[in-house]
Amino acid sequence: MAAPSIRSKLSGLKIHRISLSAAPFYASLLVILALAIFIGIFWAINEYQAYQESIENIKTTYNQQYQDRVKEELDKVIDFIEYTREQANIETEEQIRNRVQSAYSIASHLYSMYKDEMEVDEIRSMAVEVLRPVRWFGERGYYFAGQTDTGVIDLFADEPFFEGQTSLTTPFASDRVVADMIEIVREKGAGIYRYNLVKPAYPDLVFSKICFVKYFEPFDWFLGAGIYDNDMATMNQSAALDSIGQISFGQGGEVFVFKADGTIISHNDTQLLGRSIRTIVDSNDFKVGAQLYETGSSGNKEGFVVYRDFNSREPQYQKLCFVKAYEDWGWVIGASISMNEMEELIVGASELSLIHISEPTRRA
Questions:
Q1: Which of 6, 80, 272, 313 could be bridged to 267 by S-S, CB 3.0 to 4.6 A?
Q2: What are the phi and psi torsion angles at 269 (to 5°)?
Q3: Which residues pair with 243 in a beta bridge?
Q4: Is the pTM value of this prediction over 0.85?
Q5: Which own/partner contact pairs does 131-135 have at CB distance under 8 Å and 24+ positions apart?
Q6: Do 89 and 192 contact (CB within 8 A), yes or no?
């Protein structure tokens, strides 16, 4: 039997051709599919950009809020220090006035008792020894007295070296000090006076002092009481540190203080007291202490520093700190706050974005 011919074999095959009438349908289908893919890509890009903008908006808004808050808290601390210093000055002036009045009463009483039995010089010497040991302001306040006619200093309880000397030989930082006191009591009877003093034991240092002087006629005295500004500063600083150590605000908000040499003198973590701020690093080995020191010690001597939150186990959580120099006392004061709330919002926005992106996929 003869093999079938090639023609007969081909005639048995059915060849499917796209009819001209169906071509537009398939072309439209391809266009729709391409458009769908393009729209999907465009939507995904748009969603990602919206997510990025949302994250940036969160960061910008919260960063500004955090910066405003820590700066506000630090400004409150400085305002508090300034207010307490002003009040301390007022109270100090009032106290030394009262102290001088007490000394005046003692001298007057001694004079009244012995004026008929003893010479004025003897009663004056007695008054000197009665007043000499009297102290106040934590042993920092003391009395002094001198004769207005001769300028001879009869009593200087803090530095007996000056006793018996006059305004011309007393090594004050200003030769006018005794003369000025004499002028005050002669013209006004009493008054507040500030001056600088060089002590024999510290020839290279100048000590500022505030005093109140009053004239006591029976002894021809300018009778005074005073306290050194550095002693006042020490007391004010101690009181300020006690208050600063109790400050807390916001989420993890705290205030700390270190001196110009870097020594930490106030911190919520008492283990850091006495350490140098420059030795402090966070868990990422970022030298945050050195950055805080540099920010508070150079340039404008103020600024913001961001570092990892020591009290959080989450690596993304950070703290924002604002430091500013308080040069009157040689301090740098810092206020810091946790940025956890912002990070939690960012995490929440990320999760919400993933849900939005996955929903079209599930619907498809």
A1: 272
A2: -90, 100
A3: none
A4: no
A5: 131/103, 131/106, 131/107, 131/155, 131/157, 132/157, 133/157, 134/103
A6: no
